[in-house]
Amino acid sequence: MKQKYRITLLPGDGIGPEIMAVAVAVINSIGTQFDLEFDFKEALVGGSAIDETGEPLPAETLKICRESDAVLLAAIGGYKWDNLPRQQRPETGLLGLRAGLELFANLRPAKIIPQLLEASPLKREIVEGVDLMVVRELTGGIYFGQPKGVFSDEQGSKRGFNTMVYSDLEVDRIAKVAFEIATKRNGKLCSIDKANVLDVSQFWRDRVNLIATNYPNVELSHLYVDNAAMQLVQSPRQFDTIVAGNLFGDILSDLAAVLTGSIGMLPSASLGISNLGLFEPVHGSAPDIAGMDKANPLAQVLSVAMMFRYGLNQPEIATKIESAVNDVLDYGYRTGDIMSQGMNLVGCQEMGELLIKTLES
Ligand code: IPM
Ligand code: MG
């Protein structure tokens, strides 16, 4: 009998549906070649869900996700929904998805692609060879901490606040994931905090040090987040695996991403307590180019590769997809965001067709 995988597709908003179409074509081509069956279910999240149901994460979507083997998300959000109350914002749907599926570990690799070196905003000698992995805690910290809100006191003055809080369980489990990943990479882990100011960060650092005793072969260092931002720009090659809380990880993963030249090339994986993972590009929904066939589908396709590697335990398929992406770049094909002189400019759909041709050759 054919092996069958149930995959939930969440195309979302903006360029989401266009890049998702390319991802599905790639998965179907893999299915034929490897004799696998894929059962796709599409569900609503983000702005498109708000338009149809009034909420960014309908209960039905969470249910469909929970009944699948992997979730593939494209991108959510857009100007249209930016001024809605927080509970109805597309981003709230994304956070609900992460929390609802207990996806506490977010893996964001940032690797320089040699063909795109010129696209990096930094000098070649600084970024050449950069290959790092940001492990971001995704369901805790200031994103989810209570209490939070905006309150008025009796005198009528107002204050807004959020709480940055981490429990021992939350730090320990993300630290373990990061140590495991560092073990499989180059054995170096840098933990990010603001322990010189924040109690929650000192606690984070102490717990990471405790977990470190189980990983004597990993070289652990700690950096304050401000210093880490500077070091990432100044000498990014010193980093191998980075572990950070939700907010610091959000900020540093964008920084790390842009080192590689285009955020349009970077995938991510969100993993949790069960085997169910969610895979999505790091970039957003790019509403300014939505529907124009200009989007770069490669981060989405590389997210499919991560799905096969981390979600479905099919590393050889992941490698096959990654080398197809590499080959298409070698042949000189570029979408607008990574275009440079002498290369062939293609649209989203054509990039997808070229990928399929490469995969099947
Ligand atoms: C990300 C995004 C999200 C985050 C937003 C859209 C809520 O910036 O995935 O990095 O802050 O986590
Ligand atoms: Mg972000």
Beta-strand content estimate: 15-25%
Structural class estimated from helices and strands:
alpha/beta
CATH superfamily of the largest domain: Isopropylmalate Dehydrogenase
Q: Provide the list of bound ligands, each named once.
A: 3-isopropylmalic acid, magnesium ion
Question: How would a textbook summarize the main sheet?
Answer: 10 strands, mixed
| Helix share, percent | 40-55%
What are the key terms here?
Isopropylmalate Dehydrogenase, 361 residues, binds 3-isopropylmalic acid, 10-stranded mixed beta sheet, single chain, 41% helix, alpha/beta
Can you describe what's shown?
The protein is 41% helix and 21% strand. The chain is α/β, with parallel strands linked by helices. It has 2 domains: 1-113 and 262-361, Isopropylmalate Dehydrogenase, CATH 3.40.718; 121-259, Isopropylmalate Dehydrogenase, CATH 3.40.718.10. Strands 2-1-3-12-11-4-5-10-8-9 form a 10-stranded mixed beta sheet, sandwiched between helices. Strands 6-7 form a two-stranded antiparallel ribbon. The protein has a two-stranded parallel sheet with strand order 13-14. Strand 11 (267-271) and strand 12 (277-281) form a beta hairpin. Helix 1 (16-34) crosses helix 10 and helix 6 (168-184) packs across helix 7 (199-212). The longest helix is centred in the N-terminal third of the chain and has 19 residues, at 16-34. The protein is globular. The mean pLDDT is 96. Magnesium ion binds at residues 250, 254.
